[in-house]
Structures are given as C-alpha cells and as structure tokens.
Amino acid sequence: MKTRRKEQKGQNGKVLIVGGSEDYTGAVILTAIAAFRTGVDVVTVCAPEKVAWTINAYSPDIITKKFIGKELDLTHTKEIIALSETHDVILIGNGLGIKKDFVNKLIKSISKPKIIDADAIKVTNMSLVSNAIFTPHKTEFEMLFEASITKKKIEYKNADDKIRELQKIMNNNVVLLKGNIDKIFDSKRLNRNKTGNNSMTVGGTGDILAGLCAGFVAQSKNLFESATRAAYVNGKAGEFMYKQRGYAYMASEMLNELWRFIK
Length: 263
Fold this sequence. Notes:
With about 260 residues, the protein is an alpha/beta fold. The protein has helices at about 25-35, 50-60, 75-85, 100-110, 140-150, 160-165, 205-220, 225-245, 250-255, 260, and strands at about 15-20, 40-50, 65, 90, 115, 130-135, 175, 180-185, 190-195.
C-alpha cells in the first residue's frame, strides 16, 4: 500500500483521537504518537482538560482540544462532531472509560472512517455501525459479539464460528482480532497476521496498534489494508523489542522503533 507524499500540511492525513481520563492519560499519548509515526501531518486529541495539558507537557507535536471536566460526556459531543469534519479519521475509546451514550452518539453522527478501540468496543453494537475498524482483544471480542448478535440460542464452538456469524451483519466494517495470530476480517475476507510474540502483553501495545490503524486509514482510506498493515507493523516492532530487551521494555520505547517497519 503505497501513497505519494503531498506538499501541503494536512494533505498527508489528519487524525482525531477521542479519549483519555485521569487514570489513563498514557493511552491517548501512545495512540497519537503511533499515528504520527505512520506519516500523517496532524494529530489532534480531544480529552478532559487536565489530561490534555498532560499530553501537551509530554509532546509539543500533539494538538489537544481541552474539554472542561474530569471526563468526556454528552455535552462535548457537538463540538467533537464538528471537529471530526476537518479530519480524515476518528479514533475513539483509548483510556475513555465506559460511556455508552457518549460513544454511540459520536459513532452514529460521524460519517468519516472510525477506529473503535478499548472501552468504546465494550458498548457498541457493530450491526449499527459503518465505516469502522474494531480492534478487540479476546475479551472485548466476546463483548462485541454478544452486543451485536441476537441469535443467542445457537451454539458457537469457537472464535471462527463467531467470526462467520459476525461477517453476516458487519456492514462495511473491519475487525482486527488481536491474539497469538491476529485475525483481520470484513464481510468477505479474512487475513491472518503472524508477527509479534508474547512479550507484547505489556500495557500499551494495543493503543499503539489503534494509532497505526488510524494513521494508515488517514492516508489510504482503505480499512482492510490499513488494519492488515497495522497488525504487521505492530507485531514486527514487538519482535524487534524482544530481540533487543527480552521482556524488559515498555510500549513507549516501542514507539521509537516503528519507523523500521513502516518505511
């Protein structure tokens, strides 16, 4: 998936990230920097004001929109929806907390491509969403399945059975199911990604993956290819870190090695 570099600021992609809370400031920082590493021009984070100031202190590269209060809530959705119109992709959920009404208001109101990650996955019915990449781990996948499939009496033997059932109702969405072997699927296709290892259980690697998805989508607008590429790059970076440091590394250190596999 190759893209030609454009010369004006913003033409190489603008990512909007919605998330963060007092306990989970780092999640949106990881996603934002990962998105930058893909080559986008602009990354903006919508977050509670104290979280946003912390993000600014960590990195001068990230633009923040500071919302009054300790948490994002429904009173902020109008402004976030308006802001989404000036960005190419919207990433929702990292460090957000469980906010069903807030998440669903944004998802239903924003037509741009979306990355739905972390807490946002837990409160979403995929059959009611379009133009999105979902990035669940095993537990989040089970929650997404339960919220999206109404045929509760059918016995599903394994994850592949559930994938086939989701493919029937998933619209033009893509799911990147994280695991020992990542499974990336839409309504018709399924790819498997074998990069990565069990050192990537360290907190934050999933946030990086979501940021990579957002960055690639902002530049290509292709959900399936972006999810496949993000899984590959994230896994290769994890393999590299394990070779360098074994299990003794942090996700923030992995950010600095993403360029090796994106270039």
